[in-house]
Amino acid sequence: MIQKYNFGKPFNTESTVVDVENSHGKIPFGKISSGKTFEWNYKLKDSDIVYGLGETMRGMNLRGGLFTSWCLDQPHQNECTPSLYGAHNFVIIFGKETFGIFFDYPGEITFDIGFTECDYFKVTAEKKSLNIYVITPDSDKLQLQQIVHSFRELTGANYIPPKWAFGFNQSRWGYKCKKDIDDVIKNYKKHNFPLDSICLDIDYMEDYKDFTVDQKKFPDFSKYNKSLLKNGIRLVPIIDAGVKKLDGYSVYENGLPFFCKEKNGKPFIAGVWPGDSCFVDFLNPEGRNFFGSQYKTLTDQGIEGFWNDMNEPATFYSKQGLEKAFKALDEAKHKNLDINGFFEFTAIPDSVCNNKEDTDLFFHKVSKADAGDFAETKPDKDGNVLVRHRNVHNLFGCNMTRSAYENFLKTHPDKRILMYSRSSFIGSHRYGGIWTGDNHSYWSNILLSLHMMAGLNMTGFLYTGSDIGGFLGNPSRDLMLRWLSFAIFTPLCRNHSAKDKRFQEFYRFENVQDFKSMMDLRYSLIPYLYSEFVKASVKKEMYFRPLSFDYETDKRACNIEDQIMLGDALMVAPVYVQNALGRYVYLPENMVMIEWNGSKIVNEKLMTKGDHYINVPLNSVIFFIKENHIVPFAKPALNTKDIKTDKLKLVGIAPKGTSYELYEDDGLTTDISLSKNIRIIKK
Fold it and tell me: pTM of this prediction?
């Protein structure tokens, strides 16, 4: 059951797709405080588990954490980092009272989950105008899955990418020209590594201008791209939120009516990769349409996928911030820099980057009805008002992704285009996937990726993954292998790194056949992974789940945070500690242990419910299949177009006649239908 509680006149975030009638009376869980700002308080019981919030730096159970929903370019991450790139204001309390609660609010909102006081969950926001949705299960069976299903009904079906997007994606900030791309493809072919796409980071652009290609680096880009497509390789270019301020640049000149403005009516200017840049008002439908229409420049040249970046939006500086910083630096010349003065001095340069004060400087144009209590001006002749960016900050990246999606529907109504973004908000899962941002080459980030997969699936983001090996850092060979052994199960499987870090393409390491083996497993499983993804999407279910979602009466399973369920039959339990020879695994029911090594299954063993120590060689992948279930395996291929599904091997220990419902389509159609495209395969 979904109940809606309305406070004030909320901003219309468009995060939901179902109209829910307002409930009257008190909210059924917790209390709303009567102060000048919004505050919700809930007394936690000792056994309560708190899930949700999508992308966070903590575990699956968020108790003891302090989190702030404020979309932020945040490369300096640790377990105390309160904000990341997305704002996913949905949590689930699992305990004597089990319910979900969604705070539909577009600005900064803080979740103090037993951090300040260990038994109290407090949610605070500056404005009191918001909608709250409370979701309760209809029965005692699989309550957590029921709540997520209802939330997905409320917020809409998630984006489904083309099937080739489940193939391997190689990326690096630093692939500058055609020769760099050709070298990657050459080495993949040399070692028989499967490959479906290569990302282009900002270096492909002409002077970092969106929707341009540097013809010196990529002569005849259209011809080159189309030649790669014949071999099943797609180029996936990056698009940034900042539009370079440059006379003669068409996107800038034509975009002037659609950029976010300061109070004086002039475009807001801040620095990003190209220097001084403007930012499209994505909350304005005309702005969304303008920017979205620019993608056609590249799709006309054969591009079939994109990744949106820097769309929190990230800013290196504002003009106002620079002026203030330079003044402070000048004043520091004449000061005695004691301990306090020195630290104030060293903080000045960093103060201009992603400064929250800058979000007060520019505005969005929206209808009076959508603005609610967030309006800061009287309506103009068209009925539009201005809202301050700071108060709706978390909607920016979401609507940038939306701008692309809405225009793909116009330009490619019958074809799925790949789109994934760094920044997101509840509702943007309808328009594209996300990757988890600038992670690090830390062993702990393998486990962090697993945690994020669970949290993001709860909030509707199924097409997601982390940068294998870490974007920032210099990964060792063993880190790459252990990370890959988990990443082969995530929908987005991408190796990405920063330009000043170690080259980490798999062929750069010794004994490349170990990487080849794991990549072969990925391609062998793609028919199953794609099938389970599409079925979960259509049925509004989860692709990844914490064990508690399947075994909620098993207290041991409810406290497992380093294993995860996938689809109808799999459980994944990666090794995430360096030099570990194996790990303990808890089986909540009888399961079949599968060991993959040397590009084939080398061990298939039925194991009983309970705790087991499993030896996991560095070059092996070990995962588990529920007893009495089967999983289809294809023969490994070098590209998704070459995967054959007419002779699938059915893996698992199950009686004769056990069946699996395999979803198949051409991988591109927008006509997703389970009834038309399910094929029953039997053992």
Answer: 0.97
